[in-house]
Amino acid sequence: MHEFTYKKGILHCEDIPLTDIVREHPTPFYLYSYGTLMDHFQKMREAFRELDPLICFSMKSNSNLSICKILVNAGAGLDVVSGGELYKALKVGCPTERIVYASVGKTAEEIKEAIQRDILFFNVESVPELIMIDTIAGRMGRKARVAIRVNPDIKPGTHEYITTGTKEKKFGVDFKVAEDIFDSANKYPNVALKGIHLHIGSQITETAPFVSAIKKVLDFIESNNIEIEWLNIGGGLGIVYDKEKPTTAHEFAAEVIPLVKNKPFKLILEPGRFIIGNSGILVCKVVYVKTGASGKKFAIVDAGMNDLLRPSLYRAYHEIRPVVERKAESYKYDVVGPICESGDYLALGRELPEILSGDYLAVMGAGAYGFTMASNYNSRPRPAELLVMNGEVRVIRAAETYRDLVRGEKVLNELK
Ligand SMILES: *Cc1c(COP(=O)(O)O)cnc(C)c1O
After folding, report:
1. Does the domain at residues 95-271 carry the CATH identifier 3.40.50.620?
2. CA–CA distance, 258 with 363 (Å, rounded to integer)
3. What atom of ligand 1 comes closest to residue 274's alpha carbon?
4. Among the atoms of ligand 1, which is closest to the Cα of residue 236?
5. Would the pTM count as exceeding 0.85?
6. Which of 8, 146, 234, 238 could connect to 246 by a Cys-Cys bridge, CB 3.0–4.6 Å?
């Protein structure tokens, strides 16, 4: 469910026609719906109400300050994966007892900062990292809280690049290593082993892989008599991009709650895509329409892989909708960007009513891993981010300018 719908043939965000928005704001831009965002967050919270879990929004899916602030105000915590995300989490005033920190490569500096800030815990991904945290905490005269990220070796049936919980992936530690860590906790005097973390991948549309993974972890906890305060089951819930039928928050909760209720630990969830994925779109303008030598039609738009990388990186499907519906014959189009790469496309072979230059198109489901993966490739300023809230369009990140492109760069004096 989302609030990007046609009314009288014009695509709206909530009650605002996109035809009005493109008049005020140059394309390309990301556009988010506050109503949709809140709705998805509340759905997750409602589904798990009886356990009252801590829901830590995964900042890597969308780290815009306003988006994060909205969720923090609504009671969410934040799941961070870098010093930069921790900085942004603090910037929006997220209470530090609601911040968890994963990443296989936390540096000494990042660890120190997080201990200073007294975050809820680190999701630790290796023994060397645990030793590093213990050493740094010791030096600081502190005790650092950690959860051990286990790799349950479960295939979630999603894209290879967003599969994280199988044994050939770099994430977490296997059960044997986790067992050794809990058995020899006294080796890490400056660390408090507070929890277990798992995150098996992203855009997972079925409940079964989550259930298998959680069961494996619960078996592990029971057979080793491990005492923890927190079980963090990660994120990864899939959304509709195309014809997927993803498990709903309620179906997911209905299977997960029986496994984890009446346990001596609290639950943490780390959804990203589920909350923001369908709450945002990328709006672009058709610059040219051309027919290639093979007879194929290309709609060349003013947004490219630098703005939305998912199609190029994962061959991800994003629905393309014309901002103004046209009753015309349909053709197959490759919707491509201006970037000098053959992999620069938003959609391939997509059947759409005739497209003309000057038309506006909406790339749906672009709220998660959209702007956060944007780059300046081809020296293109990154796009603006807009939010529709309370019937108004607000800029929550200005489009970059050419000046932004050279910030921090210089021509050396001897070259002048
Ligand atoms: C990416 C990530 C998430 C969020 O994944 P979604 O598929 O967006 O829900 C949660 N936890 C960890 C550790 C992650 O790396």
Report:
1. no
2. 38
3. 9
4. 7
5. yes
6. 238
